[in-house]
Amino acid sequence: MLRSQFEEDLEKLHNQFYAMGQEVLSQINRTVRAFVTHDRDLAKEVIEDDAEVNEYEVKLEKKSFEMIALQQPVSQDLRTVLTVLKAVSDVERMGDHAVAIAQATIRMKGEERIPAVEEEIQKMGREVKSVVEAALDLYLNGSVDDAYRVASMDEQINHYFETIRDLATEEIKKNPEAIVTGRDYFQVISYLERIGDYAKNICEWVVYFETGKIVEL
């Protein structure tokens, strides 16, 4: 296979991955908005659109394996394809967690809400969206130094997780009838925290692509 063909296929792979990432970014934005505004219709939309994310994953994995089998890339080229494969898996899992938040939105119909907690969840959602966006930009244009910088943004997400968990616990103590709601809050912030972890994974794959070393950021 000509080098020019490999580079053309690789560019398509990158573009498809970025398109997948943008779709998941939209899912994250909409699912948090649906949760804090109690918009069940928007939540259903997020769930339905997950099929598109899964389709991206299947296409990207198929194309990656074809390139490995037919073009037998080595060294940096092989690392590039493997980076795409690993990053695709992480992005797909982000989408799964966005769907789980949407499902919680639907499940919570009629439950007593705690506005102070939901306000903080909205803030956490914005931070998660920022980290995912930065990780996707890093994938396209980043360096090792940028990977460490973006990965460090996850600390703020972890801080939100702990703060919201403590706030929800205190609010439930004041109003025990909100205990069922609290359970869903704990799940939702766990999903958001995991999305942040997957964004950090992308940073780790960028380091792998640049250096050949597998690191934990």
UniProtKB/TrEMBL annotation:
GO cellular component: a single term: cytoplasm
Annotated ranges, domain PhoU: 20-104, 121-206
Compartments where found: Cytoplasm
Entries under InterPro entries matching the protein: PhoU (IPR028366), PhoU-like_sf (IPR038078), PhoU_dom (IPR026022)
Keyword Cytoplasm (UniProt): yes
Record flagged with keyword Ribonucleoprotein: no
Any single GO BP term: phosphate ion transport
Entry keyword set: Cytoplasm, Phosphate transport, Transport
SUPFAM superfamilies in alphabetical order: PhoU-like
Biological role: Plays a role in the regulation of phosphate uptake.
Binding partners and assembly: Homodimer.
Family: Belongs to the PhoU family.
PANTHER family: PHOSPHATE-SPECIFIC TRANSPORT SYSTEM ACCESSORY PROTEIN PHOU
NCBIfam families xrefs: phoU_full
Identification of the protein by name: Phosphate-specific transport system accessory protein PhoU
The species this protein was found in: Streptococcus pseudopneumoniae
